[in-house]
Design a protein that fits this description.
six-stranded mixed beta sheet, 27% helix, 5 helices
């Protein structure tokens, strides 16, 4: 996992949220992660590793999550990084929550104005992840990460860079992939992001936060309905 140009996950990173993340939490008090997380973020009483990682995200102009696709998602250690670093008050629970507005999220939030992108390697063939592939379309598999983990706290999310049959790649394939990735990195701050619909942009009803039939064709359902399409 890389953040901006200078952050790398430590090899001994703890991937599990537990009481150790909240040194100020009294031993007799029940651990309610969202509550403890919000208080620790507000009072800066997280452990040093979490405070440092949050500071790096605020500093960086871009976040790149690079990982092998394991069992249709990210590896546990990366998910654990998100679970611990994305604190209440930092990545969620931000902004006004009322019948009029349900927070600054999905296009707004603490990390708005920054870029994010996935670099993913997969062992299967590209057709396996195509529109009719047995594994399901790659964009659908990555939607919970792109839309949920990245767009939720405000990132502009770029289309992912996916390499298929990565464990069977020969030297020529490695060179071609490296060249293609190098070209993508040159466009990190100029490429158009995935046009996800912003929660507070008018397409969703209040307070249900469901796509409004007047704004979006009611026949559009599923993940793709949350992406703006040019007419």
């Amino acid at each position: 996992m890389t953040c901006g140009s200078a952050t790398f996950m430590q090899p001994d990173w703890n991937a599990v949220v537990d009481r150790g993340d909240f040194p100020a939490l009294p031993p007799s008090e029940r651990l309610r992660v969202a509550v403890a997380s919000g208080e620790a973020y507000k009072t800066r009483t997280f452990t040093r590793d979490l405070i440092d990682e949050q500071a790096k995200l605020l500093w960086a102009d871009a976040l790149i999550l690079a990982f092998p696709l394991w069992w249709f998602s990210m590896p546990a250690i990366l998910k654990g990084w998100i679970d611990r670093v994305y604190a209440f008050g930092f990545a969620y629970g931000v902004g006004e929550h009322s019948e009029r507005r349900w927070g600054d999220r999905y296009g707004e939030g603490r990390l708005a104005g920054k870029q994010a992108m996935l670099i993913v390697t997969a062992g299967g063939w590209e057709p396996h992840y195509g529109p009719r592939g047995v594994n399901g379309p790659i964009d659908d598999l990555l939607f919970p990460i792109n839309h949920g983990v990245l767009f939720y706290p405000g990132y502009d999310v770029l289309p992912p860079f996916v390499t298929y049959q990565a464990d069977r790649m020969d030297e020529a394939g490695f060179k071609d992939t490296s060249d293609a990735l190098r070209d993508r990195m040159r466009t990190l701050f100029t490429e158009a992001p995935i046009p996800y619909r912003q929660q507070n942009g008018g397409d969703y009803s209040i307070p249900a936060r469901e796509l409004r039939s007047e704004a979006v064709n009611p026949e559009l359902v599923g993940f793709s309905a949350h992406i703006r399409r040019s007419s």
